[in-house]
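Q: Sequence in, structure out?
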Amino acid sequence: MARKITVVVETGKDLFSCFMSGADDLDFGLHGDGKTARKAIEDFYIARDEMKDFYEEQGREFPELEFEFVLDIGAFFSYPKIRN
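A: Exactly. Output:
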């Protein structure tokens, strides 16, 4: 069963960033940034994949994680609307 992790996406001066929140018990952190909220989230997933590879190289098991993204108001309004 995957552990749910909250990822905060926030607006900065020139770019967006995202980071894990409430996962201090893990021995790693993940962060992403980009010119848009979507690019920051994509970068976050790249960081996750790189950490998975590092764990594999070290002979360690990477925890099964499920991410819930929480956007600040600036990130929310910059994110493209999803159409049904």
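The longest helix spans residues 37-57.
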